[in-house]
Structure formats: C-alpha cells, structure tokens
Design goal:
about 270 residues; globular; 7 strands; alpha/beta; 7-stranded parallel β-sheet
Amino acid sequence: MADKFAIITGASTGIGFELAGIAAKAGYDLLIVADETLIVAAADDLRARGGTVDSLEADLSTIEGVDALLAATKGRTVDLLCANAGRGLGHGFLEQEVSEWRRVIDTNITGTIYLLQKVLKDMVARNDGKVLVTGSIAGFIPGSFNAVYNGTKAFVDNFTDAIRNEIKDAKGVTLTTLMPGPVETEFFDRADMNDTSVGANPKKSDPVDVAQDGWDALMDGKASVVSGWKNKLQQAMANVTPAAILAEQHRKMAEPGSASPEALAKAERADH
C-alpha cells in the first residue's frame, strides 16, 4: 500500500483515464470511478502498468452515487482528488428531454460540488491535499446547441474560483481548475454531436496532453490552467467579445448538421 491515495472520477476513458495513469506512475494508490462498466477494463489496464487500483461503477449525478464512492475509500485519507466526471448534451435546448438535461446538471454540478465539499472539508482540516477539477473554456462561451453543458461549466469555473478564495488560509491545500477546449474523447459521441463542426473536427486536443497540463498545474500549485495555446487565445477573446457574437460563433460549431462533408470524411478517416 502506497503512502498516497487518489480518487479519479470519470476515469474509464479520456482525460480521467490519462490522469489516473499519471497518478499511478507518481506512486498513488488509485480508486477510479465512472458510471459505466468500462471502468473495470480501465482498472485492469492501469494495474498492468504496475498501479494499485480499485474501481467502482457509480452514478455520480446522484448523492447516493457519491456516497458510494466515499464509502469505497474505506476510510483512507484522500491525498488527491481529480474531479473529472462530466456529461455533455448536444442539440437545441427545446428538443431535449428533462431527464437528459437534468442529468448533465446533476453530474457536472450537483455531484461534483457534493464530492468537493466532502473531500475538501477533510483536506482543509488537516491542511493537506490536492484537488484538480475539470472545468472548460466552454464556461466562457454562451453555448448555442450546447447551452446546458456550457452553463454547467461556467458554474464550475466560477465556483472553484470562489472556493479557492474561501480556503486560501489552508496553505497546504491546492485547488486547481483544468480548462480544456475540445478534446479527442468519447464526449462528442455520447453527446450526439458527431455531425457538428466541432464534433467532426479531427484536430481536437489529445487527452494525454490535456491530462499532463492539468497534472503539472496541480503539482505547481496553480489556480487554473487552460490547456492548449489555441484555447488560451479563445479564452482571451471571449473576455472581450460580446455575448451575442460568441453565441453565433458557437452555433456554427455545435449546430446539428454543421459539419461539412469534408470534415465528416476526415473525422471518419481519423477514427480508423
């Protein structure tokens, strides 16, 4: 058993899986969590690399799911939390079922801040611990045809800034917000956005690079990091661009059917 223990949520694939690999290499015992059975295969993969890994399939959009995660720690001190679990949802808001947008909100906001409250309370009490929360540059942009998702990420980006100030006297606790742009993960398929300009774009960020950016910022004690120079530029532009213009720009990226035949063909080739 290692001296260090980490929880990584949303770790079955993508950024979360890559973060888990970095943490294992850094000597952390892991508890990895996702809301799908693929988390078991992810744990097997990480163990094959030499990590000590427990896995849990849990719905982190619910209080009960987060409680199950906390119970699975078996009382171990959490030295590191990567709160990466998230859910997207494409198409127009008026077309979405209540159950669909509610799950996005409950996963990205309710479950995330409940987990943060539970874990951070102990970290602040002992003045030691590290937390990385996956926000997004989407939080700076009115998300036409992605309105609920972008709204939840605006909350996460804002919320972590506020909590960081609240706990600033706990000098041994680091709370870092990772803000990527579009990443080459299963996100767009799960959000039913493969026919959009952003979903079909084969030049998304690599989750390996995004995870490393987040990890480096966390270890350096930084408040936040925007992964990728293009995303840094987009964030800077968002701060000075009128909301109506940002919303129209996002529409061109996220409206169903916005992907050109050429982009769809390139995306298809990239998948193979």
